[in-house]
Here is the input.
Amino acid sequence: MNQIKNIDDCYNPSHDETARQGYISLMRKFIMNDISKLMNLNYEREIKTDFYRIESRFPSSGEEVRRSIEKTDIYKFWSSLRYNAQEMVWESVRRGIEREAPNLISIYKDALEDKSNLATLELDSNLEMPDYVALRDVHLMPGCWQNEYAKDDLSQGAMYAHGGSVFRGSFMPSKKRSGVACSVSKWLSLRYPDFSPVNILETGCTIGNNLFPYLEVYPNATLNGVDLAGPCLRYAFSRAVERGVKAHFYQQNAEKMSFEDKSFDLIVSSFFFHELSVDSTKKVLKECYRLLAPGGILVNMELPPSSQVDPYYNFYLDWDNEHNNEPHYREFRSQDVYELLNGSGFDLNDCFNVTIPDVGGASAKYFNDVALGKAPPPKHGNYTSWCLFGAKK
Here is the structure.
């Protein structure tokens, strides 16, 4: 077999498509930064004051802020632009991915012929999709993560990969390697210097963006990823074969996984739990507790709980609840993560809920000081910091 091609390079946007994608990235930054600041200024100067004059107090929840601000012109302008920009993200890569669909499948089939067996893939065509995936296009992404349009389809994996690049393109804090997995793995190495996981599991792994970087800190570990979406898992598997890493991918529901008790030393997730109902969240966390070996660590990167931020920021974050096909967003954030973890079996004394800076956007000294509790954590912000919750078993 010829060396597996890099599946990320199996996408060649035209000149116009590239220009359009760059424009959309910059437009999203303008919407989320510049127009957002104007909306916040309008809230502080007028809406908040008007609310106080009527209620003799300021808004105490994101919902009260939303009801006060949603009729203003600045909010309607911002919200409309944000919604349309979200749709434009996916549309900007769709045609190019459709052109390359046969080549994506060809690369995947080559990967299946790899004889090293370092990477494996187990798909389940009979897996029942839960309602939170089956009934809506989450993030307004057409076809969501799991829809398939041909045998051995990878289109949704490619859509997630390249649409995601457009989505966050103008927000990355520096040219350095950065992101969730790089930041979390560095934090773990500082916070738990003697911790050296052998088996790592990511729930909701999609295409492996936030799984592969753990090998940079723990090069001897075996990676494992669970997801509902076959197209994303095929994409992740093809990546693993091309990179020659030990990685195993499974199409399973994280609420009930097939692994034996105490199978993993480290279990991670990124932007995963806010897509689940409260009931599903509790089931997944109990599964994580079951699967963690003694001394193992669970680390989930998520949005900050509503109790930890001010009413306006709650309103700002919870926009996705109504407008981005993420109906469990607000309900997840309203929960006490310590109660969730404790109810899943973890000792409260071993639980944590911290915010860390992005390792690529912060100085090494500041990152280390935050990890070791020597400096105050940063505020939550777009790609500049990450909110973590988890526990050591």
The first strand starts at residue 119 and ends at 122. The radius of gyration is 21 Å. The mean pLDDT is 94. The longest helix spans residues 15-55.
